[in-house]
Structure formats: C-alpha cells, structure tokens
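User: Fold this; tokens only.

Assistant: Input:
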Amino acid sequence: MILRHRLRKSFNSRPGLPGRESERMTRASNIILVMMAGLLVILAALRIFHG
C-alpha cells in the first residue's frame, strides 16, 4: 500500500518541480509530430487520387 502511494506521488509531481515543464514540452512535440504525419498522409492521398 505504501509502495503504491509512493509510486503515485512520484508520477504526479508538483507544478513547481522542473520535471513538469519537460513533460509539457514532450507532449507538445508529440502533438506536432502527429499533425505533421497526418498532413503527409493527406498529401500522399491527394497525389494518388489526382494522378
């Protein structure tokens, strides 16, 4: 029980800690990568359909 609480506490870090900002940056970069991948798929599909 104590171990579970300790694990949960380490994952949910407080807003003042420096690890929190790097998490936010990683999430933003992942969103950008997914959007770019989607754009490439759309462009490829358009090229195929238009010939």
